[in-house]
Amino acid sequence: MLKSVSRSLLILCGFILVGCATTQGPASSGACQPITEENRQLRDALTRAQRALEKDQATFQEMDNALKTSARQIALLRDDLVLYRNIIAPPDGKSGLRIQRLEIHPAGKSDLYSYKLALIQSMKHESSIRGTAAFQIVGLQDGRDAVVRFPAGNERPGQVNLKYFQEIGGKFELPRGFKPRSARISVVTSDGAKPVERTFDWPAM
Predict the structure, then answer these.
(1) Which of 25, 52, 53, 172 is most buried by a 10 A CB count?
(2) Nearest to 197 by CA among 205, 186, 181
(3) Tens-place pLDDT, residues 12-58
C-alpha cells in the first residue's frame, strides 16, 4: 500500500513541476509560488512515505527471520523428542542398537563436509554396546555409479560405545566432481551380531 502511495505522490509532483515549467508570462510567476509550496509539501510527504515503507520492510524481514528460526528450533525439539522416545519405548517395541539420525553440512571448503551421527540403544540398557561405524557415500562420478567409503582403509573407524545415546562427529571430503545421492551407515558391534545399517538421502544444500 505504501508503495502505491509513494508512486501516486511522485506522479502528482511531476505533473505540478511540468505545469509550472510550461506556463509563461509574469502572471504565471505568481501563480507558481503556491504551486511550488504545494510541491515541497508533496515531496516531504513522499519522503515520509518512503521512510515508512523502508521501516515496514525491515520489520517484515525481522519477523520472517524470527519465524524461520522458530521453525528450525521446533523441528530440532521434535527430533529430540523422537530420539528420547525411541530410547525408552520405541513404537515398534524392538530393543537394541538403532541408527537414529544423520546430519551432514558443508564445511566451508569445496567438497568438504561435516557430519553428526546419532546412535541409541532402545529399551534394554543393562550393558553398553561397543563397536565401529563406517560410511558409504553413494553417488555419481563422471556419470557413473560410484561409492566413496570412509574412514579409508588406513584410517581408524568411528568408535561406538554407548548405553543410552551417542553422537559421533567428524569431517570427510568427497572427490572433485562427485555427486552424492545418499549416505549408508553401517555399525558393526563387538558381540558379533549382524551389522546395523541405515541409508539416508543426501540432504538438500
Answers:
(1) 172
(2) 186
(3) 444 444 444 444 444 445 555 666 777 777 787 778 877 777 777 77
The partner residues of 165 in beta bridges, in order of sequence, read: 120
Task: Write out pLDDT tens, residues 99-147.
Answer: 999 999 999 888 899 999 999 999 888 899 999 999 999 999 998 999 9
The dihedral sign for the CA sequence 84, 86, 87, 90: positive
- Residues 142/181, Cβ–Cβ less than 8 Å: no
Alpha helices in the chain (DSSP H): 2-22, 26-88
State the pTM of this model.
0.64
**CA torsion sign, 36 to 39 to 40 to 41?**
positive
- 100 to 21, 122, 139: CA distances (angstroms): 75, 10, 22
**What type of residue sits at position 113?**
Y
Q: Is 137 exposed, middle or buried (0-12, 13-18, 19+ CB in 10 A)?
A: buried
